[in-house]
Amino acid sequence: STQSTGSGVGGEMDGISVLVVSDVICPWCLLGIRRITAAARHLKVPISLSFGPWQLAPTLPASGISKQASYLAKFKRSRDPTSAVERMAAAMSQLFRAEGLEYSLDGEIGNTWDAHRLSSWILDKHGPEAQAQFMEHLFLQYQLEGLSPGVHANLLTCAQEVGHLDIERAAAVLADATAYEGNVREGIEFAKRELGVTGVPFFVLHDSVTNRSARVPGAQEMSTFILVLKQLLSKRDQSLPQPKM
């Protein structure tokens, strides 16, 4: 199901909220989201994801640059950029296949600023579950189909996939360059200053029962996320009042 990043990872107990600092053009971010979601499902722990903004390539135009070209530019210092990109794509394809996804280097890359503005609006007006569904569609649309996240029509397609968003309002948010601009700027600043983020993905897990948090940088293996979730949950037992002897 395309909603597998959403907050519907089940169980009866109180859940754990997860802030995901990410950027849509980052394939590792999608892998990390899949792995933490699988870890929660394995432990039958409900998690609620919300997304914080990050920009890996803030100078990119909205469209017009192929993914291939952007990666060739990234590897231009290596001895053979073409084979470096091919090796990277082969490695990514293998990792994506392990998550049941088909990685693609086809299509266009684009600036993600407006995607983050729309994501911020969805979180503000419709809550984290709708935002998580939107981001899932957006990640899949870019990473698997190569549709630029800088193109407003592509963003609105993903908003429509969520099912209950006001698409006219979403289009108006995108058309107004100042709408939710402050939220994105503050979100990136918060990630840098308060969380110490230097790269994405970056996960902040918070358990409202114990008010404890854990920070996980990078797209760790599912087993690592299981360990972190278990450690966080073990604090619940410690915080219960002990019976008097």
Q: H/E element string?
A: EHEEHHEHHHHHEEH
Radius of gyration: 19 Å
Query: What structural class do the secondary elements suggest?
Result: alpha+beta
- Kindly report the average pLDDT value: 93
What's the total count of β strands?
6
Name the quaternary structure: single chain
Low-pLDDT stretches: 1-12
Number of helices: 9
The percentage helix is: 40-55%
Description:
51% of the residues lie in helices and 12% in strands. A hairpin with a 4-residue loop joins strand 5 (202-207) and strand 6 (212-217). The longest helix is centred in the middle third of the chain and has 18 residues, at 81-98. The protein contains nine helices and six strands. Strands 2-1-5-6 form a four-stranded mixed β-sheet. The protein starts with 15 loop residues before the first strand and ends in a 6-residue tail after the last helix. It is globular and about 70 Å long. The chain has helices spanning 27-43, 67-74, 81-98, 113-126, 128-145, 152-162, 167-175, 181-193, 222-239; strands at 16-22, 47-53, 65-66, 108-109, 202-207, 212-217. It is α+β, with helices and mostly antiparallel strands and 245 residues long. Mean pLDDT is 93; it is low at 1-12.
How does the SSE layout of this entry go?
Elements: E1 16-22, H1 27-43, E2 47-53, E3 65-66, H2 67-74, H3 81-98, E4 108-109, H4 113-126, H5 128-145, H6 152-162, H7 167-175, H8 181-193, E5 202-207, E6 212-217, H9 222-239
Parallel strand pairs: 1-2
Antiparallel strand pairs: 1-5, 3-4, 5-6
Helix pairs in contact: 1-9, 2-3, 4-5, 5-6, 6-7
